Amino acid sequence: MEPEAEYLTHHEKILLRRAQGGDRDALGSLLMKHERACYSFALRLTGTQSDAQDVCQDAFSRAVRDVGSWRRVGSFRSWLLSIVVCAHRDRLGSERARRHRERSHALERKVNRATGMSDVERRELRRNLDVSLGQLEEIYRLPIALRYEQGLNTAEAAAVLVIPEGTVKTNVRRGLEKLRELMTRKGYGAAALGGSAMEAALAQTPKASVPASLTTFIRSLVSGSVAAGKVTAGAGSAAAGSLALGWKLLAGISLATILGAGGFAGWKHLRPAAAAPQAADQRPPAAAAQAPGVVITPRTHHAWAAFAEIERKGGPSVAMLGGQGDVTLLVPAEIRFQEVEGRKFIEAVAATRDLKVAWVRDGKCAVLYARCPDIEVDRIGKKLASGNTATRREGAWLAGWQRDVRVVSLLVKAAKDADAEVARQAVVGLRRMGWVSVLMLDATGIELLAADLDSRDSNVRYQAASALGSVGGEKALALLEKALADKDKYVRSGAASALGSVGGEKALALLEKALADKDKYVRRWVAYALGSAGGEKALALLEKALADKDKYVRRGAAYALGSVGGEKALALLEKALADKDKYVRSGAAFALGSVGGEKARDLLLARLAAEKERFVLVAVSGVLRTRFRGDPKVAQALKGFKLPSGPKSRPTPEPEPPEVF
């Protein structure tokens, strides 16, 4: 029977949200919750405690670096275990790892035949299983360890190993057959290995004792201001006599200092500069001619909200290679509430995380990325160009974990490789980088994306449909029309959102059709998309959306009107301010802040005087204070203004209102 999938508890969701927002204590709690599982799995992979500890330290360091971009695909534990696999594989090429494998493969113990087993005999069976597992090839050992020792189901194990579920099942079955052969040679018969006896023995894994130094290392990662003496004492008491102690302590102390003084930016400064020349076709896109200047005054600390405002005003679109999240990019305090040109703003935000900016499509698009050493890009390029299939597979796998724009073209080419596994690994890597960024950098990737729309995985189809907004053109519109007919509502909503970015008469015609979708969730995203499309027809459709029976559709339409602007939009927002639902009225208030001008101000002041609902008054007064700061009429109206008393905690709308500019 499959083990049940692991779901995040409410407390874990809160911890994860805080961790992605930069709370190191919350991140430490999450890592320590799963450190035993990670360590026992690493012990299974490496065979020695010292190597398992090294792999875990590397994995936890990567988790700290990448937690901001984690998205719910499988469980958080399966994500950590996938990082452990990557850290282990990165170490396999070392001489030390090769010597260890040679010693492990030579190790065998003589045991007697087991019939009715006592506790002692059962423990001996477990020890021999451990030895035999170490003799299996990795493609069999890893899925068995994940399924039986870590308790993951087939889907989660597939997510950890980035392989199809069918492959996991096949490798588990074949691995168990090979394991039975090895155990038979050691003298075990059907009584010990028959039926589900061996699987039960595999599941009864003794809990590994996590070294105290590993716990100390996690604390040093998230503390930000740990004294060197404390880290040394904690690790030294737990790993006295270990030859690897020096570098482990240094790594812990250094990473703690880095996190306290700039996080990933500090880590990147320590990476060695590469001296190897790079091929001409692997250079990042040169800075293109600057698009027409767009000036904004950021009134938010969320960089992605500011990026959206730049795009709404006709400036460049922004994407980040490897996934984006507004919790990971923040607006520098020194440029908040200051007028700044869009291009300079994007570069300033990227600099806070030591990211590079690739300007593409004549400066109309910006892709943020983390540059990797030139020698690494060159090594991947050589592997992918190799005539050896196994080498190309390894190259595709390695390329998929990079976050450098120079690797994208290599993966797009590898996705058309004659070997199916090379092509599959390349496509998985492109998905990991994010189709929006990939298509900005290489428009030929749309053919690969089109294949994803036929995937059986609805999440893959959703990501593909959402990314088509960054392409435009007849091909993209045809694919989006197909996605709008998808049976999954999230795929249809992703397609609607993309149509708003594409714009044009055909896109509006498709949005008009989608506005009649039977699912209210899809209609909400259609309303948001109409704000991006703009124009008279979009206004007519938004007026229709304001009459929808679902309050969230009406609220989405109110938000969207703030992006369209103009006299007709103001007239519709005046109507939305009188809606019976408080969330719609608050949405209209935020939209008026985006439109600006005297009429918008007067409508907000009138609502401030007439509104009785505390929730709406919070929105109205907030917009007036931020968007109309310094206006004499606003200052007079807010003088002595007090919010009416209300509940200790107010309900939060879903989705949350966007920031106001």
Features:
661 residues; mainly alpha; Phage tail protein beta-alpha-beta fold; Leucine-rich Repeat Variant; two-stranded antiparallel sheet; 35 helices; 5 strands
Model description:
- The chain has 661 residues and is mainly alpha-helical.
- It is 63% helix and 3% strand.
- The chain has helices at 10-20, 24-46, 49-66, 76-91, 95-106, 119-135, 138-149, 154-161, 165-185, 190-193, 197-203, 212-223, 228-238, 245-260, 264-270, 303-312, 342-352, 374-384, 389-399, 408-414, 420-433, 435-441, 446-452, 458-467, 473-483, 489-502, 505-514, 520-533, 536-545, 551-564, 567-576, 582-595, 598-610, 614-627, 632-638; strands at residues 295-296, 317-320, 340-341, 356-360, 365-369.
- The strands form 2 sheets. The protein has a 3-stranded mixed β-sheet with strand order 2-5-4, with helices on both faces. A two-stranded antiparallel ribbon has the order 1-3.
- A hairpin with a 4-residue loop joins strand 4 (356-360) and strand 5 (365-369).
List the helices and strands and how they pair.
Elements: H1 10-20, H2 24-46, H3 49-66, H4 76-91, H5 95-106, H6 119-135, H7 138-149, H8 154-161, H9 165-185, H10 190-193, H11 197-203, H12 212-223, H13 228-238, H14 245-260, H15 264-270, E1 295-296, H16 303-312, E2 317-320, E3 340-341, H17 342-352, E4 356-360, E5 365-369, H18 374-384, H19 389-399, H20 408-414, H21 420-433, H22 435-441, H23 446-452, H24 458-467, H25 473-483, H26 489-502, H27 505-514, H28 520-533, H29 536-545, H30 551-564, H31 567-576, H32 582-595, H33 598-610, H34 614-627, H35 632-638
Parallel strand pairs: 2-5
Antiparallel strand pairs: 1-3, 4-5
Helix pairs in contact: 1-2, 2-3, 2-4, 2-12, 3-4, 3-12, 4-8, 7-8, 7-9, 8-9, 12-13, 12-14, 13-14, 18-19, 19-21, 20-21, 22-24, 24-26, 25-26, 26-27, 26-28, 27-28, 28-29, 28-30, 29-30, 30-31, 30-32, 31-32, 32-33, 32-34, 33-34
